[in-house]
Amino acid sequence: MRLYTRTGDEGKTSVVGGRLTKDDTRVIAYGTTDEVNCFVGQAITQLDPELFEDIINELVKIQHELFDCGGDLAMLKATEARPFKAKEEMVLFLEERIDEYIKEAPELERFILPGGSPAAATIHVCRTVTRRAERYVSRLQRESETNPVVLKYLNRLSDYFFAIARVVNHRLGVKDVEYERSAIVFREGKRKE
């Protein structure tokens, strides 16, 4: 198998159902989703398998789901033969996990600075790149047809990354650093969006 095809040399790429310019919103959306997946892979390599087995297993699951989301975003139109893969259950799973991790981490009142341990810092990168992907998918939904579950999934996923970054620091005994000019913005362990 040859890795290069030369078909993109003119600035276009293949998607399911046709070809688009490489700077098309659809291409940027699934490309940014792929970026998230890469940072998730990096985060996994920074987690101790004994201390973080649960989180590692979830992150591997999320990597597969990000591939599903990317595949959905790369389709110009779903068909019976090729239906969308991202499902509402994926969103519900993230919500359940977020609720559990919020209980595990220390109470939060103020914004925190991204960082702490190397793994938590990488997970914060996952969070912010997910937010960027979410913005592109939001734009894509206004421009053309796509799976609406993907936008919900990315929205929850960024919250999930915030929650596990805090848990990672907590389990490692690393304190989150509060943004020193932050007012009290979180009440009863819930994030305000």
UniProtKB/TrEMBL annotation:
Sequence similarity: Belongs to the Cob(I)alamin adenosyltransferase family.
Lineage: Bacteria, Bacillati, Bacillota, Bacilli, Bacillales
UniProt keyword Secreted, yes or no: no
Reaction(s) the record says it catalyses: 2 cob(II)alamin + reduced [electron-transfer flavoprotein] + 2 ATP = 2 adenosylcob(III)alamin + 2 triphosphate + oxidized [electron-transfer flavoprotein] + 3 H(+); 2 cob(II)yrinate a,c diamide + reduced [electron-transfer flavoprotein] + 2 ATP = 2 adenosylcob(III)yrinate a,c-diamide + 2 triphosphate + oxidized [electron-transfer flavoprotein] + 3 H(+)
EC supergroup of this enzyme: transferase
Entries under PANTHER family matching the protein: CORRINOID ADENOSYLTRANSFERASE, CORRINOID ADENOSYLTRANSFERASE MMAB
SUPFAM superfamilies the UniProt entry points to: Cobalamin adenosyltransferase-like
Transferase in keyword set: yes
InterPro entries membership: CblAdoTrfase-like (IPR016030), CblAdoTrfase-like_sf (IPR036451), PduO-typ (IPR029499)
Residue span, Cobalamin adenosyltransferase-like domain: 3-168
Pathway: Cofactor biosynthesis; adenosylcobalamin biosynthesis; adenosylcobalamin from cob(II)yrinate a,c-diamide: step 2/7
EC numbers: 2.5.1.17
MF terms (GO), sorted A to Z: corrinoid adenosyltransferase activity
UniProt keywords, alphabetically: ATP-binding, Cobalamin biosynthesis, Nucleotide-binding, Transferase
Protein name, as recorded: Corrinoid adenosyltransferase
